[in-house]
Amino acid sequence: MSTRGKPTFVSIIVPTHNRPQSLRHTLESLWELDYPDDKIEVIVLDDSSTAGDVVRDFEGTHPIRFVDLPPRYGLQRARNLGISMARGEILCFLDDDVIVQRSWLVNLLKDYGSEQVGGVGGRVASRSFDDFDRHGAKEGTIGVTGHTYLRFKSPNRMEVKFLYGCNMSYRADVLRSAGGFNEQLGDFPYGDDQEIGFRLVNRGIRLVYEPDACVIHMTAKTGGTRAPENVHAYWACRNLAYIRLAQVGGPAKITSTARGLFAIYRASLRRVLQGRTPGQVSATSLPFAVAKGFVSGTSLYLVGKNHS
User: Fold this and answer.
1) pTM of the full predicted structure?
2) Which helix (H) or strand (E) segment is 12 a member of?
3) Contact call for residues 212 and 130 (beta carbons, < 8 A)
């Protein structure tokens, strides 16, 4: 994508929380992009006071800006602050534990050749840039049975209903006109990428999955917004219930909510039984967390519906 033959100016927004080493790897991969340095800016927003030294290593030699946020500022608020600061025509959002392919940005931008496309997201590999799911016929949507397609490993380009949060981009004017990311989803980053996607598609905006715009998601074992499993289950179920009820139409509104709640409970129970969760959490607390999250998310949906 270019304006009058010139490369488009792009802002790359990277919120981070207590992951200085993986953030360094992410930034180093960005400096290897096949794209002019003077046509990008990288905005790092840190609410854990751990990224400053990493960013300072690149200041003066690379187009990077740093924001030291108050503790527990939250992912949605950080992204929205990044949107307000950004100078780019296209806004890209990355997690602080991804490695981008050199051609990532060029391939991401090519789908913006159509003015109807408001957002483009890429493939998310887990081992190498050759990591595909050859059987991935669908991505970024919810089927009528309630199944959510969110692996983002398909080799096939397609239109989708939402993008993967660790590798997504939008036109700046589209995001700003929609009000940015939904801060009602709280500090816990579950479903925020789906919510903005459904909201934009319901406004008539086209979103595209581009498999050639690839990142490796390292899935850092520390940092981020990890929480005890009962807290995780509550926020995940709260946000899932709200998003499905508010944004998904037809029979999938109910089936996807039910399937999603059960999937969250099953995954949380597995992690508790395997001892893979911060803190001491009893398995018997999980059904209450799921129920509480569902009630809270449903209430949030009903309050918003009554005020719309």
Assistant:
1) 0.91
2) strand 10-16
3) no
Q: Do the Cβ atoms of 152 and 141 come closer than 8 Å?
A: no
Which range marks the domain in which residue 278 is found? 229-303
Query: Are residues 204 and 252 part of one domain?
Result: no
Q: Side chain identity at 207, as an amino acid letter?
A: L
Give residues with Cβ within 8 angstroms of 86, minimum separation 6: 11, 13, 41, 43, 172
Q: What phi, psi does 148 have (nearest 5°)?
A: -100, 125
Q: Which long-range contacts (CB under 8 A, 24 or more apart) does 105-108 make?
A: 105/10, 105/33, 105/34, 105/35, 105/40, 105/213, 106/33, 106/34, 106/35, 107/210, 107/212, 107/213, 107/214, 108/169, 108/210, 108/213
Which residues pair with residue 208 across a beta bridge? Answer: 120, 159
Sign (positive or negative) of CA dihedral 236, 242, 246, 251:
positive
pLDDT-derived band at 223, boundaries 50, 70, 90: low
Alpha helices in the chain (DSSP H): 20-30, 52-56, 75-85, 104-109, 172-177, 192-201, 229-247, 252-273, 286-307
Q: Write the pLDDT tens digit of every residue in 114-160.
A: 999 999 999 999 877 777 776 667 899 987 777 888 889 999 999 99
Query: Residues 16, 201, 216, 139: is their CA dihedral positive or negative?
Result: positive
- Tell me if 224 is assigned to some domain: no
> Is residue 150 situated within a structural domain?
yes
Taking Cα atoms as reference points, which of 283, 199, 192, 200 lies closest to residue 239?
192
109, 255: one domain = no
